[in-house]
Write a structure and sequence with these properties.
By secondary structure, this protein is α+β, with helices and mostly antiparallel strands. It has helices spanning 2-10, 36-48, 55-59, 61-72; strands at 18-24, 27-34, 84-93, 101-109, 115-117. Helix 2 (36-48) runs antiparallel to helix 4.
């Protein structure tokens, strides 16, 4: 999964995506895997669209976090491996039917993924 996420992150257009189902603690999550940059851009847009005078300040948070992380991460090959997976239009399923949750954007640690499939439930 790290390799696939890394391929998306290396795509300079940030338009690539693929469907995936992830087995994570508490249930199954499925949606479209997107690049880190696409996630940050969509997150920034959603914050900017919030009502109120603070939306512009909030919209800077994704960029500030990226700059802080990029400055703290080394430049060796192991440091380039992605640590996070980013999903768009994600659905989280638990064992209870009334516990389904939907997320426009979702981010989770790759280390927490116990299993995955390059498919979406039908």
């Amino acid at each position: 999964m790290s390799m696939l996420v890394g391929m998306l992150d290396d795509d300079e257009t940030h338009q690539s995506r693929f469907g995936v189902s992830l087995n994570i603690p508490g249930g199954v999550l499925y949606g479209q895997v997107i690049s880190r940059r696409a996630y940050e851009e969509e997150w920034e847009t959603s914050l900017r669209d919030l009502p109120g005078p603070g939306s512009e300040a909030l919209a800077r948070v994704p960029r500030l976090l990226r700059e802080a992380v990029d400055g703290a991460v080394g430049s060796g090959p192991a440091d380039r491996l992605p640590r996070w997976v980013h999903l768009r239009d994600a659905t989280f399923l638990t064992g209870a039917a009334n516990q389904t949750m939907h997320f426009a954007l979702w981010r989770g640690r790759l280390a927490d993924v116990a299993g995955w499939s390059l498919s979406l439930p039908s």
